[in-house]
Design a protein that fits this description.
By secondary structure, the protein is of the alpha+beta class. It folds into two domains: 122 residues, no CATH class; 59 residues, no CATH class. 24% of the residues lie in helices and 29% in strands. It is built from three helices and eleven strands. A five-stranded antiparallel beta sheet has the order 3-4-9-6-7, with no helix packed on it. It has a four-stranded antiparallel beta sheet with strand order 2-1-5-8, with no helix packed on it. Strands 10-11 form a two-stranded antiparallel ribbon. α2 crosses α3. It is elongated and about 65 Å long. The chain starts with a strand and ends with a helix. 15% of the residues are buried. This is Hikeshi-like domain-containing protein. InterPro entries: Hikeshi-like_C, Hikeshi-like_N, OPI10. Belongs to the OPI10 family. One of its GO terms (molecular function) is nuclear import signal receptor activity.
Length: 188
């Protein structure tokens, strides 16, 4: 039905590596592969296998769960998009899940895969949206810090030179041309 690869970390794993919960849900216990270092696994490539046809109105959604947290949506694949490299933004571990004495087994990180209605997914590329948001925030911080270094104070107002945006943008462009790694630093 589907397979996953952890880039630079694993060979392809098929559905047999997952525990099947029911007809439409599978769980991969990360303890099996990396133990407590699950949060160092930052990406997963999920793909549909050639002989499996997912209905056009369905998607194969991928979720992550840190120990003690709820599952968090990462992205999905569909017939129109049969493979994707998804960022694994692990939620903070925590006590959001209530445990009873019978559940005293140690909590582990998990990757969940589920067949869902395509219409129920708000976006197939949540991870890309988060990367864009982080990039925008870092560029904004860079601009703010640059402007702050030229600020003067007039009562309760900050005063900056009129050409500050032009100067910042030229400096930003020049640095990006000189050092191709510079822009990559903003996306981390």
């Amino acid at each position: 039905m589907f397979g996953v690869v952890f880039p630079n970390r694993s060979f392809p794993l098929d559905i047999a590596a997952f525990s099947q919960i029911d007809t439409f849900h599978w769980i991969l216990d990360m303890n099996t592969f990396v133990g407590e270092a699950y949060d160092q696994i930052r990406e997963v490539c999920v793909f549909l296998l050639n002989n499996f046809t997912l209905p056009p109105d369905k998607a194969l959604a991928v979720y992550v769960q840190s120990p003690g947290s709820a599952f968090q949506y990462c992205g999905a694949v569909t017939i129109a998009r049969p493979s994707a490299v998804l960022s694994l933004n692990w939620p903070e571990p925590g006590g959001q899940l209530q445990l009873t004495a019978a559940d005293a087994a140690p909590l582990t990180a998990k990757i969940g895969v589920s067949v869902v209605d395509l219409a129920s997914l708000t976006s197939l590329d949540v991870a890309a949206e988060k990367r864009i948001e982080r990039l925008a925030m870092r560029v904004g911080e860079n601009l703010f810090n640059y402007m702050q270094s030229f600020c003067g104070v007039d009562g309760s107002k900050l005063i900056v030179p009129m050409d500050i945006l032009d100067r910042w943008f030229k400096k930003f462009q020049e640095r990006a041309k000189r050092d191709p790694e510079y822009l990559k630093g903003f996306a981390l």
